Queue: 4 jobs
Job 1
Amino acid sequence: MAKSKFFRVAVEGATATDGRVIERSWIDDIVATYNRATYGARVNLEHIRGFSPEAPFNAYGDVLSVKAQDDIIEIAGKPQKRRALYAEVEPTDALIALSKAKQKIYTSIEVAPNFAATGKAGLVGLAVTDSPASLGTDILEFSATNAPLKAMFDSRKQDPTNVFSACQEVADFSFDEPTAETESVAGVLKSFFTSLGLGQPANDNTKPAEPKPVQAANDGAQFAALQGAMITLASTVDQAVKTSAAATAGLEKRFGELETKLNTTERPSGPARAPATGTAPFTAIDC
C-alpha cells in the first residue's frame, strides 16, 4: 500500500470549535499514546464519520504514526516557535485521487484530552477539508459564543469534550506508491535472490558475493539419517503393496464362490416342474 511522508497536522494554540487551546503537552501526549494496535485514528472528510462505506463520508485512510517537533510559524506577521504534530498516513485510492486533484488539502485533528481515562491526550481522528477559513478563522472567533454553531461541530465529535484543531495546509501531500515490480511475484523473487548475492545486474560493477562454504561436519550423520528414512519409507510402501495384493486375492476368491452359487441356484420366481424320471406309462413315438 502507498503511504505519505510525514506532514504537519496540528500546532499548539487555538482550536477550531470551542475557543480552547491545544496545549504543548497534548502534542507530546499524542506521540506517546498513539498506537494503531490500541486505537487507530482514521482519515475522514470534514470530521464527518459516515455510517456507510460508500462515498463521500466513508473512511479515506489510516494514520500510521505520529511525531512532534518545534516549528517556526508566522502569526500576525511575527515568527513564533510552536510545538507541531506530524502524521504519516496510509491513504485509500479515493484520498490519493483527491490529492492529485488538489482537493481537501487541509487537515484537522480530533483530540481526546483524556484519552481512555489515561489523563493524557490522544489522537482519535484526522479530517481532510477545503474550508480553512470556516474551521480556522470564523469558528475560532465565534464558536465559543455561538451555541448552534458549536453544537453542529460537537455532533461530529466522538465525545463533546474532544477538540478539533485549527486546519493546517499540507505542504507536501504526496504518497509513495509501490511499484509493480515490488508487488509482483517476480519482484519478490528478485529481492530474495539478490539478498543471497545472486542475480546481480549485468551492468553492476560490484563484485558478486562469494558463495559461502558448505558446512560438511555433519554430512555423514545427515546422510545416514536420510538413508534410514528412505529404507523405512520403502519398507512401508512394500508392506502396503503386499497388504493390497492379499486383499485383492481374497476379493477374487469370494467373487468366484458367489458366481458359482448363483449359477447353480434355481431362480425363486421362475416356474417349477416335477423332475422327469423316464418311467412308464409313456407313449412311444415312432421316429
Job 2
Amino acid sequence: MTNSKFPWSLIVRFAVTVGVLVFVYVANRDGWPEFRRDLRHAHPAWLLAAFASYALTNLLGIWRWHILLDNCGARLPFAQTLRLAMSGLFTNNFLPGAMSGDVIKAIYAARAQPAKKPTVIMSIVMERLLGFAAMFIVSTALILNRYDKLCATPLTNISVHVYLALFAAGIILLALTKWTRISLVLPFWKKLPFRSWLAEAGQAYKIFIRHPACFWGGMALSALAHLFLILVFYFISLALTMNLNFFDLTAVLPFIAILTIIPATINGFGIREIAFQEFLLFAGMTATSSTALSLCGGFIIIAFGLLGGPVYLRYQTMPAQKLPNHSR
C-alpha cells in the first residue's frame, strides 16, 4: 500500500538538486583544477569577513522579526526569537526553496504564543514583505547604476526588464488587494493561486502600518541586511582574488536571488551556480570563477545554518506541551 505521507516531493527535489549539481560539475570539469587552486590560495581573512557579513545579515533579520513580534503584542524574549529563527535557518539547508524555514519558524512561534497564532503568522509574512521591499528598493538603485551595461548583453537585458516589470506588477497587485469590488471587474481574481498570499500580505501591512516606527525601522533593518548579503559575495570574490567590479556584482545579484526562491532544488544549489555563470558573463567572469564564487557563498550559508541544528533538534525532541510558552 502506498503511504500518502511519504515525502515524494522532497525526494524528487533532492534528486533534481543532485542532477543539477552533477550537470554543473560535468560542464565545468576542465575548470575544477583552477577552482581547487583558487581555494587553496584563498585569503582566510576575507572568507571570515564573508561569514561575519552573512551572520550580520541574519542577525539583522532576526532583530527585525523580534521588533515586529513585539509591536503586534506577540512578545518573546530576544533569546527565544533567536532560537526560533536559527531553527528555521537550519531547515533551509535541507528543504527546497529559500523560504522553507519560515514554515518551521511559524510552527514553533505559534506554539510559544498560541493565543497570538494569526498575529505570529502575520509577522512572518510582514517580515518577508519588508525584506522583498527593501531588496527591490536597494537592488533597483544598483541595477539602474549599471542599466546601460546590463542592456548591452541579451540575457541581462531581458532580465532587467522582467525584473522591473515584476516590481511594477507587485505594486499593482498589492494595490488591487485593497479594492473591495475587484472580483466584479476581474472574475478570475478569486482563482489566482497567489491571491491568498496577497491577502495575507495586505492584512499584515494593515496591522504593522499602525506602528510607523516599527514599519520603517523594519524597512531600514531589511535594507541594511540586504547590503551585508551583497558584501558576502563581494568579500568571497576578494578572497579568491577575482577581478570583479562591486557594482557589476550587485547589479546581477537580484536576478539570482529571485531564481533561488523557486523551490526546485535544496537551498537553491545548482540553480544558483548556473545563474552565477550566466549572469556574470556580462562582467567578463569565466564559468569556473562564477561557480567558485557561488559555491563558496553556498557553503557559508550552509555553515551558518548548521549552527541552528542543535536548536532545531531540541524542538523536535521536545513534546509540544513542554515547548516554551510566553502567551499573555
Job 3
Amino acid sequence: MNIDFHSPENRYTYASRAAHPDWAAAIRSVLDPVDIQVADVGCGGGIYSAAWLDIGAASVVGVDFSEEMVRAATERNGGPPNISFRQGDATATGLPSESRDIVFERALIHHLTDYTACFEEAHRLLRPGGHYVIQDRTPEDITIAGSPDHIRGYFFECFPKLLDTELGRRPTTPSVEHALRAAGFVPTQTTTVWETRTTYAGIEELSQDLLGRVGRSILHYLTDSELAELVAFIAQRLPAHEPIVERDRWTIWCADKSH
C-alpha cells in the first residue's frame, strides 16, 4: 500500500535530515536564490524550505496537503519570521496571486496523475518573470543499477515489482515540458543532478533508516517481511564497517512565467 501522509505515525518521515550542500550547488547553477520569495509546494517536513533560506532566499512559505507534515515542518523550523507553513493543496495553495518569485516542487509531481491543475496553480502564484523549479526522478533516473552509493537501485533489483510501480508513476521530460507550455510557462532548462541524501556511520544505521521507511514512499509498498528481506539483501552488498554515502540522481526542470 502507498504511504499515508496524513497519519501521525509518518509525521517526521520527511523532516529528519538536512538538505546536502550539493543540492544548494545545483540550485545555484540554474538561478540566483538571493533575496527572492519562495513557495515550497509539497514541502513535507520543511527540509528544503529551510534550505532555501540557507542559500539566501528572503522568505519561504511551505505548503503541504498533510496537516501532520505541516506540524512537523513547523516544529522543525519554527522561530524565524521569514519562514512559515500552511496546509493547502498543490492545485489550490490558498496563497495570493503573483506573490512569489520562485515556486519549488520537489518529489511532488510523481504523486499526481495529471499535472494541469498543479502547473496552473504555480503559474498563478508567480510574478511575471518568476521561475518554476520542479525536482523529481524520471524513469532514466530510477533505472540506474544499485551500488554502494546508489542504494535505491538495490530496491528494484530485489523487488522488480517496485520498479513496475515506479515506472508507472515517474514523470518524463516530454510530458513535463508539454504540460508546462500548456500552463503558460516557457521551459528554460532541464538538467540532471546527483544529490547526496545521507551519510550513514555504517550498515546498522542505514538498516534502521530503511526499516523505518524514512523518507521513502516506495518502501510503503512492501510488507514488513519483504522490507526485512530487502534490508538483508542490501546489507550483503555493502561494506560492513565503513561509512555509507547514499546518493540519488534527480532531474530538475526550470521554466519561466513570461507574462
Job 4
Amino acid sequence: MNTGENTIIVNELPVTVIRKKIKNLHLAVYPPDGWVRIAVPEIIDDEAVRLAIISKFSWIKRQIRLFQDQPRQSVRELVTGESHYYLGRRYLLDITPTEKRPFVEIKNKKKLVLNINEDTGIEEREKLLTDWYRKEMKRILPDIVRRWEIKSGLQVGSFGIKRMKTKWGSCNPAHKRIWLNLELIKKPTNCLEYIVVHEMVHFLERTHNDNFVDHMDRIMPQWRTFRDELNSLPLAHENWQY
C-alpha cells in the first residue's frame, strides 16, 4: 500500500491522493483549472480510492468545467488606469507621486489612489496595495463575524486573514478558528459573509454532507446565490503552484 502522497489516473484524469490519520475521505476540486485532490485514511488502498473517485466523477467533471469557464484577470501591472476591485466595486487605479509616506485612498468613489514616490517599483506598489487590502479586511471582519455569531448561535474563537492559492477559507473546528482568503476583500460583501458562515458551519459538520447543507439553509437561506455569485467572478491572476 502507498503512503504519504501519490498521484493516480482515473479515466485519464490525474488525482492527487493524500493519506492522513483521518476517518473519512475528503474530495475537492481546486482552482484555477480543476486540480483534483482526495485525502483518505492511511489504511485505504489505491483501488478503493479509485472506486470512490469514479462514484463522484460526474461531480468532479462539473466542477472542473466551472473553473475552466471562470474568467481570469490579466497580470496586474499596477499602473494608472488599471482596474482593481474592492468589496465588489471596480475602481480605476491612479498612481499619484508624493514625497510623504506612501498611502492608499479611495477618491470620488471611482479611483483607487496609490500615493507613492514616482520611483517606486512594482513590488513595492503591490505590497502597499496588499497591506491596504489586509488593513481594510481586518477593519470590517469583526462586525461580520459578530453578526453571524448572533444569527447562528455559534462562537468563533479567533479568525485570521491570509493569502491562499486553492481555497476561499479554512477552519479548525477543535479551536473554533477560521481563516479567510485575502482575495475576498475584492469581492461583494455577501460573498465574504458566505465564506465566513461556511467555515463557521464546519464547527458543526466537517464534511459537505446533507447535515452541512441543512445548517447552511437554516443560518443563511440565500447561501447558494452568494456561492454562485462568488464562483462567477473573475479569479485573480496567480502563478498557481501546488
